[in-house]
Design goal:
Layout (H helix, E strand, L loop, with lengths): L1 E4 L5 H12 L10 H14 L1 E7 L2 E10 L5 E9 L8 H14 L5 E4 L9 H6 L16
Parallel strand pairs: 4-5
Antiparallel strand pairs: 1-2, 2-3, 3-4
């Protein structure tokens, strides 16, 4: 697997991966390609996007944003195509990103993970991430 910084040419392919994979359980998001592409373009301007390439195609991406606290980054999104999951690629992707940013002085890596069955919480726990009880995710539905 090759990991490189995304270019503008990659954005439509990244948006399509995001749209497809986030519509599957447990996420079940309803997304259009146009809306997803708009979001990815905004992330491209305000964050760093890296792509994972295997078999000469983009198979996943990660979006990271440096926090105002210079020792911290926020991992906004990590998505890998379903047919490439379960092969350790997500772990390799995260390890490379953590290594890259650790060399730049980053010591804190933060993210939000889905806790539902099939969600990403277990994946991140295996990588050493712990639940931070200083914040709580809240929702109100009317």
């Amino acid at each position: 697997m090759i990991i490189r910084k995304a270019t503008k040419k990659d954005l439509k392919e990244i948006a399509e991966i995001f749209r497809i994979e986030s519509t599957k359980p447990p996420y079940n998001k309803k997304r259009t390609l146009q809306g997803t592409l708009r979001q990815i373009k905004e992330d491209f301007e305000n964050s760093s996007i890296y792509v994972a390439i295997e078999d000469n195609k983009i198979i996943g991406f990660i979006i990271v944003r440096r926090d105002s606290d210079k020792n911290k980054i926020w991992i906004n999104e990590l998505w890998i195509l379903k047919e490439y999951q379960g092969r350790g690629l997500g772990k390799m992707f995260m390890n490379k990103i953590e290594f890259k940013y650790s060399k730049k002085g980053i010591r804190i890596f933060e993210l939000v993970a889905n806790t539902q069955k099939g969600g990403a919480e277990g994946f991140y726990k295996k990588l050493g991430y712990k639940i931070d009880k200083s914040m709580v995710f809240m929702k109100k539905i009317k």
